[in-house]
Amino acid sequence: MPLHTVKATAGQIRSQGGHFIFPVKENRPTLFAVLDALPWRQAPITHHSVQKGHGRITTRTIQVLPAPAELPFPGVAWVWLVERQVTDLHGKPISNIAQLGVASSDDTLLTPAGLARYIQDHWGVEVLHWIRDTLFREDNSTARPGSGPRVLASLRNLAIGALRLAGRTDITEATRWACRYMTRPFAILGLTS
């Protein structure tokens, strides 16, 4: 949701009694620079998790600090840094990702573990969009406004979900596999006898 990491959106959410958790990327250079300059090396890790699955080990840490007074963004109670390291099952590095962000909710409503869970859940949504954009080239769709784009998005989600339910984790390879024989998609959905 980096495109929504704007003061007007934050103000609208807070004016209606809601709270926000926004990632901050380099497309918000002033806010990003302030967050990036914070003393993260001295900040304690407030939550740590390790997950093993899909042929890899994912380690996530989150550091949370009170929002600095000079932060150029309204309504922020916490600022955070999440780091995610992914290795194969033998410890060989696959990826390292760091993300900065802001949250309006204070510690009476949200713990560091809860914040980490929200951020991880958001990444899960982003992965779905990434698959739809890269594999199915959704951004290049020529479907006209109306119900067409929604129907096509629903069909793409159905295809991705069906492949995952069938135990396929590499959606690109699974899509190739399913397309090789016309009956495979129907078999995955249980539509064949």
Characterization of the model:
- The chain is 38% helix and 23% strand.
- With 193 residues, the chain is an alpha+beta fold.
- A 5-stranded antiparallel sheet has the order 1-5-4-3-2, sandwiched between helices.
- The N and C termini lie far apart (43 Å).
- The model has no long low-confidence stretch (mean pLDDT 82).
Largest pleated sheet:
5 strands, antiparallel
Task: Provide the β-strand percentage band.
Answer: 15-25%
Please tally the helical runs, counting DSSP H or I stretches of 4 or more residues: 6
How would you write the strand order of the largest sheet?
1-5-4-3-2
- Radius of gyration using CA atoms only: 20 Å
Oligomer: single chain
Principal-axis shape: globular
Task: List how many beta strands DSSP finds.
Answer: 5
Structural class based on helices, strands and sheet pairing: alpha+beta
How far apart lie the N and C ends?
43 Å
* Unreliably modeled segments: none
Order of helices and strands: HEHEEEEHHHH
Average of per-residue pLDDT values: 82
Work out the helicity level. 25-40%
Short summary:
This protein is an alpha+beta fold and 193 residues long.
Key features of this structure:
alpha+beta, 6 helices, 193 residues, globular, 5 strands
Any chance you could write out the topology, listing elements then pairs?
Blueprint: H1 7-15, E1 21-24, H2 29-36, E2 47-53, E3 56-66, E4 78-88, E5 93-103, H3 112-134, H4 148-165, H5 171-180, H6 184-188
Antiparallel strand pairs: 1-5, 2-3, 3-4, 4-5
